Amino acid sequence: MPKLIYFALAVFWLSNFSLFGAEKKEPAPSETPLRAGAAAVDITPTEFPLNMPGGFNANMATSAHDPLFARAMVLDNGVTMLAMVVVDSLGVSPEILEEAKAIASKKTGIEIDHMLISSTHTHSGPPYSTRSEDGPAVAYRKVLTEGMAESIIQAHASLQPASVGAASHPLPDEVFNRRWFLKAGKMPLNPFGKMDIVKMNPSRSPDVLDRPAGPTDPDITIISVQDARRRQLTLFANYSLHYVGATPRGQLSADYFGEFARLMPSRLRGTNEFVAMMSNGTSGDINNIPFNVTRPPREPFEQIRIVASKAADTAWFAYRKIDEHKNNIPLQMLERKVELKYRRPSAEEVDAARKVLAVKDKAEIDSLPRLAQNYARRVVQFAEREEETLTVKIQAIRIGDLVVCGIPFETFVETGLELKDRSPFPQTMVIGLANGRHGYLPTPEQHRLGGYETWLGTNQVQKDASVILVNNLLEMMNELKGESAVK
Question: What pLDDT, in 10s, does the model give residues 437-448?
Fold first, then answer.
């Protein structure tokens, strides 16, 4: 009988080896104490005029209201070294980002796939690239590329013993879902001459509004980094708010992202080298318009100051929740390339688009649905596109008990909330417009409802792309956690 018992125990142990094996264990903290560095490099244009490409029509800037920056944080625990950058831009293309990463990698030794560069999505930012011969725009591409690289290089050069902590705190009263169900008979035709179920940024009249079509994410999540004397080195924040806007006419601005970075040192009394930065979260369907509240009139930039001040206060409250900053933590980063299919218009949609573009009479054009010809051009362009697929980069970063996910789209808040809910980590930060800008990323359910963010031309990848990316990120997070199953 004892032999049978020993045999049974042996079989059980062998069949369940993976439950106890190394691949299931969480990575051990590094034996080397954490080092960190941060830097902010001014990337404000000096040559004008420049277009601010945040809308459908040209919007020329002749000066800058406030400075634009590339802000970088570098972390190194002796095993893993990585960089996280926030740049004041509408959304930098992957090509330029790769160029900047290559420059920084050559100077610092940080692997290119261990760099995350995200854009704030300020709508009052300058162009990030140009195919024209326009002098100021061409000159700015060089400033932007070198500035992003230099922010990483300077942050790396300032590496010093450090400790890190993370927390979140809610700021619910400045985020609003901008997609709405409307009352019967109030929905206008979309640019394709059809009726959507929901509308982006509708009239604020109570006679029009029914209910919002989705949730919001109220939390501001922070990564706090201190030096060996417990002085603040850097603070990396994240909030799912698109942008604020209402900037002075004809002037560039970093929007509330820049104003937050300016205010934060006064909240934490850091060193002169203290660098604060605010990244854009999953805000593809979120803005700062209180549709069911009457807000007093504001002067240009005033609402930005209000939101930035409240965000800085909220980040301070989050900071106070951190029990301990630690200098001996797991630090890992994964990058994965995911292939997505481009959306293709049907033959009927292409035919309808060509008919819209054939209209030349001004009165007839004025009678078309709003933006009809803009989207007709996009439909034809999508039909003529030779590529069938788009390869995008997603990233997952482990910093102690926090995980950071990077997605290169204007990501809907539902996706961010799902990743936070299903994450194996106690704290999760999701950054949109990370490592590129490939349009909007609605969920399949929001695609069914229609609206601006789902239109062919605003969205360009398959309708279940958000599901594919979430599943990939969950696999990556579980790998970082040392687990194999996706919850």
Answer: 999 999 999 999
